[in-house]
Amino acid sequence: MSGRRSTIESLSNPLVKRMRLLREKRHRRAEGLFLAEGLRIATEAREAGVLPKWLFLGPEGTAHPLAQELIEATLGAGGEVVDTTPAILSKLSGKDNPQTIVGIYAEPRATLADIDRDAAPIWLVAERLRDPGNLGTMLRTGDAVGAGGLILLDDSTDPYGVEAVRASMGAIFTQSLVQARWDEFLPWLRSGPGELVATWLGDDSVDYQAVRYSAPTFILVGNESQGLPADYASAADVRVKMPMLGKADSLNAAVAAAVMAYEVLNQRRR
């Protein structure tokens, strides 16, 4: 299967109008597509075996050898490579100074049933995560520690929004990502192996380094401002907290997930 290469220079082009709507969640969901910008992220995707349906390139977008490899791979997979203008790239990305490459990718629609919990010793779980920067950071953390992926519970922010994809620095293509409700997640978790570890500031929490974690470990963090609901925390196998020696009473959700993930990783390394 061979793709095609085209040139688009008009802001009123139907494909441009269609793709710029992907900045809105409802259009992403309707199309099953999302946007990722920049050669680095596109290269991470290619190395993970994911290629864009459409690859938009500015005048300088073909200069790098990695861009040429990306173009050839996209065409070879049946995608369309579109040579375009900075103005159109700006319209697609919503940025005044856009990257020279914008890729349009199919949105994975994985479910809990698709997860192979034995594929990795660490999994991250976030409940009502609202900040796309935190979401992207958690994906990057998961990639760094060799986690299997991120499970987003309840009304979390859209992982395929431009800000979250950008913050993931390509990890959205290397980590499994599933969106589910708590009342779906807990029965699924209990149907197989897995230790659920909640970050929780309650009286029954223990120091996070006092626990010996069992694989696969599912690290559960709560909403940035409200933390975990009490019944979610009580359903965990263990509740842990980190020492807070200053004035702050809690850590950022993504930071807490990273500290926990590296503790689990370091225990396995030792």
**Radius of gyration, Cα only, in angstroms?**
20 Å
Distance between the termini: 48 Å
Helix content: 25-40%
Q: Low-confidence runs (pLDDT<50, min 5 residues)?
A: none
Largest beta-sheet details? 7 strands, parallel
Structural class: alpha/beta
Strand count: 12
The chain-level mean pLDDT equals 94
User: What gross morphology would you assign?
Assistant: elongated
* Helix-strand string: EHHEHEHEHEEHEHEHEEEHEH
Strand order of the largest sheet: 8-7-6-11-9-12-10
Strand content: 15-25%
Q: Determine the number of helices (DSSP H or I, runs of at least 4 residues).
A: 10
Characterization of this structure:
The N and C termini lie far apart (48 Å). The mean pLDDT is 94. By secondary structure, the protein is of the alpha/beta class. The relative contact order is 0.14. It has ten helices and twelve strands. The strands form two sheets. Strands 8-7-6-11-9-12-10 form a seven-stranded parallel β-sheet, sandwiched between helices. Strand 6 (122-127), helix 6 and strand 7 form a beta-alpha-beta unit.
SSE layout:
Layout: E1 4-7, H1 14-20, H2 25-31, E2 33-37, H3 39-47, E3 54-57, H4 65-76, E4 80-83, H5 86-93, E5 101-106, E6 122-127, H6 132-145, E7 149-153, H7 162-168, E8 176-180, H8 182-190, E9 195-199, E10 206-207, E11 217-221, H9 230-234, E12 238-241, H10 253-269
Parallel strand pairs: 1-4, 3-4, 6-7, 6-11, 7-8, 9-11, 9-12, 10-12
Antiparallel strand pairs: 2-5, 3-5
